[in-house]
């Protein structure tokens, strides 16, 4: 198997301290399932990420896949077991995506969390941030937003609470926000140095500048790459997997590396 494409961004966010170098490896939207993302491919990807010498590893949600019912589902515990092999000096942290919630039929029926993926991931030592934050090594705050489409396809049906996610951050430190969908970007306060998102698959299909696939309200505006809104900055990863149909054109699967300098 050929190595996964590594997309690198080197940024100097306005609100990030100069000289406080941080190397972030991002795993977004693996959508693990047979045949497009089998467990052996996930295992290879984990080894690739570990070889990148990142300071911290970020997981951005949508961990399992089903395309039109044709993909053989893989148990979320098997996905968690493989992802638990990820290792970085500052740790491995993540958020859930919409498919993690939609996949949890009992939770969908109840109409309230927690999502079973959170429990399974944390039982494997993977920390999921959901409308809360953690201070990392006295250097920065890492905040995680609950999914914005947890119980439907609009942000009105989400479990996200931006105010709660940022409630306990240390105001003396810069903050990185994890949000599966980039839709929240225009709503975040101007105190957030960087937001990291996935969800869009970078459009998944890109034909001569035409991108027909946009999974949520603002995802076409923030479909892929690096964006600025005043002092706030956003990186949207193309991620690794497939949604809707197992096809990518003009946007290969990627592991994303963000270097803050």
Quickly describe the structure:
The protein is α/β, with parallel strands linked by helices.
Order of helices and strands: EEEHEEHEHHHEEEHEEEEE
Distance between the termini: 33 Å
In this structure, how is the largest beta sheet organized? 6 strands, mixed
Radius of gyration: 17 Å
Count of individual beta strands? 14
Percent of residues in helices: 10-25%
Helix segment count?
6
Q: Which spans have pLDDT < 50 for at least 5 consecutive residues?
A: none
Describe this structure in words.
By secondary structure, the protein is α/β, with parallel strands linked by helices. Helix 1 runs parallel beside helix 2 (76-83). It has a six-stranded mixed beta sheet, covered by helices on one side. A six-stranded mixed beta sheet has the order 8-9-10-11-13-12, with no helix packed on it. Helix 6 (162-165) links the parallel strand 9 and strand 10. The protein has helices at residues 39-50, 76-83, 98-102, 105-110, 116-123, 162-165; strands at residues 5-11, 22-27, 33-34, 56-59, 72-73, 92-94, 127-128, 132-136, 140-144, 175-178, 194-197, 225-229, 232-236, 254-260. The chain is built from six helices and 14 strands.
